[in-house]
Amino acid sequence: LFAMLFRDFQQSPPGGLRFSDGFKPKSGDVPASILVDPQAQDAMFLAHDGKEWLYGAQELKGGNYETRLGLTTGDAAGTSVAIGCTFERAFADAVPIAGGFLAAIAATGGVDGGCDAGMPGPASGPLVARFQGGVLAEVSSFGFGAIRDLQAAKRGDGAWLVWFDPGGEDQPDSLVIMAVDGFGDPVIEPYSMSTLCEQGSLEVTSFEDFLAVACIQPEPEGASPHVQVFDPDGVARGEIKVAATGSIHPGKYARG
């Protein structure tokens, strides 16, 4: 089985996000779903701790974007909180931790109550929200500049956080990596490295606290998948690129 968080297009106009954890691969069946957020337009992420799900949703409110995080067991919608208000589309992701979840949100405004309670800001930060025992327990705020394609991956002591910094006129795009513990405090301070990755192509995963970062790099012969691996201390240990021609280009380097 697998779960989906999706927008309901059956209504006119379309409204709300629905959730179902009853999808079966290749079955052809569309399982029953529940409405978890009647106003949201965008599904941002799903994370599962074995018992319940944490989801991220986004609603366009008065020209700004409000990020909301909610819990569900799959049978009914549970607690939902608005956290973050941006004047551009935000980014968010989450991982399960012992007894709850850690969620990262690229937002600086509306930390307490979303767009109804605060002024909008850019998609930056990030905010790190800790859910414990089914409630929002704590929010940590970081000010590391603009964020695109924010991704999270599980660590034994918390979470890896990875995102693109879009740079500017005189600065190239860069990849930013940091790690936080289960309370949202930094374990590895954020550091950046230049990147040729296309925005919108970032994916991350982890294994035994190692981090793998994958993206697409444009090449003259076509788009090329690129993977970098970092050890639990955040040190880059290797990389590999699969060219559009099918050739493989391994490499190895160390973080300076």
Summarize the structure in words.
The protein has strands at 2-7, 17-23, 34-37, 42-48, 53-61, 64-72, 77-86, 92-97, 100-105, 127-132, 135-141, 148-155, 158-165, 174-181, 186-194, 203-207, 210-217, 224-230, 236-242, 248-251. The protein is an all-beta fold and 256 residues long. The protein has a five-stranded antiparallel beta sheet with strand order 16-17-18-19-20, with no helix packed on it. Strands 4-5-6-7 form a four-stranded antiparallel beta sheet, with no helix packed on it. Strands 8-9-10-11 form a four-stranded antiparallel beta sheet, with no helix packed on it. A hairpin with a 5-residue loop joins β18 (224-230) and β19. It starts with a strand and ends in a 5-residue tail after the last strand. Mean pLDDT is 87; it is low at 252-256.
Structural features:
single chain, disordered C terminus, 55% strand, 256 residues, four-stranded antiparallel β-sheet, mainly beta, globular, five-stranded antiparallel β-sheet
Low-confidence stretches: 252-256
Q: Indicate the radius of gyration in whole angstroms.
A: 19 Å
Please give the number of β-strands.
20
Percentage of residues in DSSP E strands: over 45%
Mean pLDDT metric? 87
Oligomer: single chain
**Count the helices. How many?**
0
Report the biggest beta sheet as strand number plus sense, adding barrel if it closes.
Answer: 5 strands, antiparallel
Principal-axis shape: globular
Share of residues in helices: under 10%
Class computed from helices, strands and strand pairing:
mainly beta
Strand neighbour order, sheet with most strands: 16-17-18-19-20
